[in-house]
Design brief:
The chain has about 475 residues and is an alpha/beta fold. The chain contains 18 helices and 17 strands.
């Protein structure tokens, strides 16, 4: 509400990013007011919140009225089939909307996605629909078939439909391809396969990487590309070529498991150019985590940024149950205390609890590691874990940024962190950034709740290059 009042006369705002802000349906009225006053708004990012169809319905009228809206990102919220109907109505009424991202809303399923595809049949502006990991299966095929039949002709812009991480089979895609005109401008990507111009093709990852690579392979972006473990076997040799001096690799929000992470770890064991890798929002589990830690401790000295957020690694949610709790905690201590060169470690939303905080605290107390930023947001850390962690942070002279937002920390843990901040100030090693937003108490009372978005949101971008 405060932000709404501050910006209510700002008609020139063209981008609003409120992802990872713990927003609920109760906040959508204020969001609608804010967007309603920004007639030039083109990009609205609401990813990774707790918005359901109720909140989306509150914002619907405003979203339909925005004359310049091009990009609407609602990834990883709580949208169900009824939300798909609302999204469809927004698409149908917009003449400017080019991209809608609904990935990781697993309750959308076939019915919700069908409403979106139905609206896309007549949209002349829409260029990209992201339905990755939305719980769909072969039952969506009749709606995709209808889309490719009806959306044809010069009046329509090229359309890319991404449905990675689903249960769609190749025979179902063949059914869609048989209905697709050979001059169709629609491309559908699903896992290994791509439907284009009436054919089902196995995706050419070699070619895709070549097209995505910039500046002689210094940066490769494979975010949300449906990358699976078997693809990594083809990707790694391309990155190992003599012509490749890769520094930044983004593989966020794909379908990687422990095997894929292990293959990237093997690549890191001999590579000396890669400085940043983003493996967040996958399913690498404890096995992938341990593979990455092992290579960072034993051989790699060039990697400075590692984001493993939104991978179920610790606790009962571990997707790879082969490692014991003790083994996982031992490796956590190693990566914090003994990795040489690593500055950023992202472990948000990995199932971490108070026991892991104790391990990190002990490792930080040694002052032997190189970490300057640790991201532990959206876990199950309580007052006890925050209090124990504060002791290790207070003894460490290198760490300058800590993210503990959206945990279960109350007044006791917040007070402990506040004392840690004061202690570091007095020792001449001040913390630059502590984020406690989304917990049980208002952290802004002691540290302004400052958030360095370049370091703690886990989205590797151009700012990452500046940081490196």
């Amino acid at each position: 509400l405060t932000l709404t009042k501050a910006l209510e006369t700002n008609s020139k705002m063209y981008s609003l990013d409120v992802g990872w802000c713990n927003l609920t349906d109760d906040d959508c009225t204020a969001l609608a007011c804010l967007a309603d006053t920004s007639t030039s708004l083109q990009f609205l990012l609401l990813y990774s919140n707790k918005i359901s169809s109720v909140g989306l319905k509150i914002m619907q009228t405003t979203l339909q009225r925005l004359p310049c809206l091009k990009y609407l990102q609602l990834k990883q919220n709580r949208l169900d089939a009824s939300a798909g109907v609302v999204i469809g109505e927004i698409i149908a009424s917009s003449h400017s909307l080019e991209e809608v991202d609904l990935a990781r809303n697993r309750l959308l399923k076939n019915d919700g996605c069908a409403s979106v595809l139905k609206a896309a049949e007549s949209s002349t502006s829409l260029k990209r629909i992201v339905l990755n990991k939305t719980g769909v299966d072969d039952g969506l095929m009749p709606h995709l078939t209808s889309l490719v039949r009806k959306r044809s002709g010069e009046a329509f812009s090229p359309l890319l439909v991404l449905i990675h991480g689903t249960c769609i089979t190749r025979p179902a895609l063949l059914q869609v391809a048989s209905a697709m005109p050979t001059d169709s401008s629609i491309t559908i990507q699903s896992g290994l396969y791509m439907v284009e111009k009436g054919h089902v093709l196995q995706r050419d990852f070699d070619g895709e990487i070549s097209r995505l690579a910039e500046k002689s392979f210094e940066e490769v972006n494979l975010d949300e590309h449906g990358v699976e473990d078997e693809h990594v076997e083809r990707i790694v040799p391309l990155l190992e070529g003599d012509h490749c001096g890769i520094k930044l690799l983004k593989v966020r929000s794909n379908s990687l498991h422990s095997r894929g992470a292990s293959l990237f770890a093997n690549f890191l064991s001999t590579n000396s150019t890669l400085q940043a890798i983003d493996l967040s929002e996958n399913a690498i589990g404890s096995g992938g985590f341990i593979s990455m830690v092992t290579v960072l401790v034993k051989s790699n000295r060039s990697l400075q940024w590692l984001d493993l957020s939104a991978n179920s690694i610790f606790g009962s949610n571990d997707v790879d149950s082969t490692a014991s709790s003790i083994e996982k905690q031992d490796n956590l201590g190693l990566v914090v205390s003994r990795s040489c060169g690593l500055k950023f470690l992202g472990l948000g939303r990995t199932g971490m609890g108070d026991e892991e905080c104790a391990v990190i605290s002990d490792a930080l107390s040694t002052n032997t590691g190189s970490l300057t930023v640790i991201k532990l947001n959206s876990n199950a850390i309580t007052d006890q874990g925050a209090t124990i962690l504060s002791r290790g942070v207070a003894r460490n002279a290198k760490l300058h940024s800590l993210s503990l937002g959206s945990n279960c920390i109350g007044a006791e843990g917040t007070t402990a962190i506040a004392r840690c901040v004061e202690s570091r100030e007095q020792c001449g090693h001040p913390l630059r950034c502590v984020w406690m937003g989304g917990n049980k108490t208002d952290s802004s009372q002691f540290y302004g709740c400052m958030l360095d978005t370049n370091l703690t949101l886990g989205r590797v971008s151009s700012a990452m290059k500046e940081y490196l």
